[in-house]
Fold each of these.
Amino acid sequence: MTIKKFQGRTQDEAIAKAKAELGENAVIMNVKEVRPRGIFQSFKRPTYEVTAATEEKEKHVDSGVALKNLQKMHETINMAADEQIQIPPPAPKQPVMPQSAPASQAPGAPAIPGMPELTPEQGNAAEQSAIEFLKRNAGLLKKEDSEERERIEEKLENLQSILEKQLASGAGKNVEDKEFSKTDSKKKENLAFIKVLYETLINNGVNEKYVNQIMDELEKVNWNGSSVDQILSNVYQKMILKFGQPRGIDFSGRKPKVIFFVGPTGVGKTTTVAKIASTLKVEQGRRIAFLTADTYRIAAAEQLRTYANILDIPLTIIYSAGELNQGIDQLEDYDAILVDTAGFSHKSPNQKEDVKSLIQNMDSHYSKEVYLVVSATTKYKDLIEISDVYKEISDYKIIFTKLDETTTYGNILNIKMYSGAEVSYITNGQNVPDDLELFNSQKMVKRLLGGS
């Protein structure tokens, strides 16, 4: 019996391939739908696999024909055959040619190359043994011919019984197919859940490029046999790792720590400086001073002076990069100096050079940190340009403002993935200092995954 599998784009195509190779009498034992592997390949059309069988034709042996063939073979039979022949002890007489030897053969030569010479008595005995051998085989052929037919009939009956049981148990599906059905059902459930996660991240503003990266990493895990909770936990952990562990201002090194706040106009830099100063002084007991280089915007210095008066913090105004080191020297007894810089458009090269000169001309005797302040409401394309421009100025950490003015937080992950810069703080309102917090990666991932 021959059993083979055939595949086609449709069920009919697979069956046609089976019958083309095995014949029209081929028995279709099983038809199985095969879906492509992989998360996003599931959108492709499935193929079909057909298992077909056909009974091999048994060669029928006619005993009469076989006997005639064997008798004909007797004329050229090799006496050195495997059949055990009893030969009487040789007598020292003149060798003669066996009756089956050709007449042209030279006297005394063996009948067949490599065959020993036989006496007349040996030849007669061998011939008689050969005839008895043929008779025995002829009788066996008749007997085996009948037995062979019985074996074929028994095989056909067994095949019919097997097919009936397979059809009764569900179109011939075996145990392996049933297990595949269970696995396939679980896979479909998990795939549906992954699609929901995918759409949730997209709807929350995560760029498709980074969503695909997360899904590709998920596909490397054996999610087919996982539960929905395990898949969600895996995605949750991977996204937290992408955000990393946020840190606040580092006060290690020589005092004072000089902290620059840079960023485009209108993102809330000055208010953010006041919030951080209040947190450091009131909650951590740090000695804080203000220094502003924002002389472009009208009343910018006055706004920071108002906060300085409320917090009882000294304020120094500088008008050029050359005055920066002198202002720092006057405040060297403080733990930190927060420097508010002028906001500028990322498309303004002149203002960019002013801020770059301010930061790079600082005396290396002091340690510094740079924070890029950006709004969570800014479009992703603009955020990319902003991050690139400020990367030319200095390495930085990121502060996201105005989270209270948006319902999508995907740009926070987008810029973290794009720039590789650490997200340190977020703000979600105008209240000083209440609406400021150290970035919480776990809380943000929950929001991105549709939680609260």
Amino acid sequence: MEHLTFDYPAQRAVTTRAHVGVVGSGDLEVLLSPSDPAASLAAHVVVRTSVDGYGHIWKSVLDRFFTRYDGAAQIEINDFGATPGVVALRLAEAVEAAEEGDDA
């Protein structure tokens, strides 16, 4: 089991939570929540993965994601062997779910 952390600059506060995906059988879950309001605007990502030795792949996927996403959020990713495409899909789903929650 590997535990990775990444931090990215952000431009805007996230105000709602989102939970997408399920851990199990080659999938993963993403939990997105607002950052600590007292902290500077940043996104903090924690990845817990059952597959060791792929930190560079996680970094590439997250670097690409954060070129488009500027929300200050705490993001937890619990992985059970998902492919990079599934990771990108779940991250996009979490952002969409959080943004829909803002509209409610």
